[in-house]
Design a protein that fits this description.
Elements (H helix, E strand, L loop, with lengths): L8 E3 L12 H9 L4 E8 L5 E3 L20 H4 L20 H11 L2 E6 L6 H15 L8 E4 L2 H10 L5 E5 L6 H7 L4 E5 L5 H9 L3 E5 L4 H9 L4 E4 L2 H4 L7
Parallel strand pairs: 1-9, 2-4, 4-5, 5-6, 6-7, 7-8, 8-9
Antiparallel strand pairs: 2-3
The structure holds SN-glycerol-3-phosphate and magnesium ion.
Magnesium ion binds next to strand 2.
């Protein structure tokens, strides 16, 4: 495998469990902890603008309700994405992809953009996010790593911005993982940490791919995965896993 340019530890959904997920408040908390890489979820507003949100619907993490894809970016930006986590974060907005890029580039933080399409918008989301990432990270020393559970979204991203590295996400690693990675030109396999073992990590490396494990919150588990050679760990507890960050 070629030299992998990303750090070991990625804060999941920007701030992990320490802040409202996928918010700039979380990113700032992670940055203050010394986190050098973050993962976040990107989808499209009704008017086709990329913004950060995990769920297809709004009610779990914001004061809105119903499908996120039904609202324009201006309507989404009126929502409070902080109060459901804690009153101290009241008024926190759903971030634009552009805001994330500005803050991460100025802070030297590497990014894994998980393309999280609303159902039926897989190819459009892959295309729009890849084009935006190309523009927003122009001339960056390390490009954003694009990932998705949707092969269709990654395929569209590949056509739109073939130079951006891609990772294919699995919950459980399927037997035909290599064919699936090849089909979207992925450089990395991303999967649930419980799906990995030493032999599988060695097979994936031997085939020339990097490995990301999510969501790893226990330091002993993280050390075991690191000892197997896992290249990236996505965690809700960047405060606990910070001590492992010395590799890159
Ligand atoms: O990218 C790793 C992880 O974020 C995938 O699962 O559901 O937290 O987006 P989820
Ligand atoms: Mg994610």
């Amino acid at each position: 495998m070629p030299l992998w340019p990303y750090p070991l530890v990625f804060a999941h959904r920007l701030g992990g469990a320490l802040a409202p997920e996928n918010t700039l408040a979380g990113l700032l908390i992670a940055a203050r902890l010394g986190v050098r890489a973050v993962e976040c979820d990107v989808k499209l507003s009704a008017d086709g603008e990329p913004f950060l949100l995990h769920d297809d619907t709004l009610q779990r993490t914001t004061n809105g309700a119903g499908p996120a894809r039904a609202l324009t970016l201006a309507q989404l930006r009126e929502l409070d994405a902080g109060s459901r986590f804690h009153a101290a974060f009241a008024g926190e907005a759903l971030p634009l992809l552009e805001e994330l890029a500005t803050l991460c580039r100025s802070g030297g933080i590497q990014v894994n953009l998980e393309i999280k399409p609303c159902p039926g918008r897989e190819a459009e989301t892959g295309r729009v996010v890849a084009r935006a990432a190309r523009r927003l990270w122009q001339r960056a020393a390390v490009p954003p790593l694009l990932s998705s559970f949707s092969a269709e979204a990654l395929h569209a991203a590949r056509i739109a911005a073939p130079e951006l590295p891609r990772g294919l996400l699995f919950d459980t690693v399927p037997a035909n993982w290599r064919a699936q990675l090849d089909a979207v030109g992925a450089l990395a396999l991303h999967c649930h940490h419980a799906s990995l073992n030493l032999a599988l990590v060695e097979s994936i490396h031997s085939a020339g791919y990097a490995v990301m494990a999510y969501t790893v919150n226990d330091v002993m588990e993280a050390r075991l995965l690191q000892s197997w050679g896992v290249d990236m760990l996505c965690t809700d507890r960047p405060d606990r896993l910070g001590e492992l960050q010395s590799r890159v």
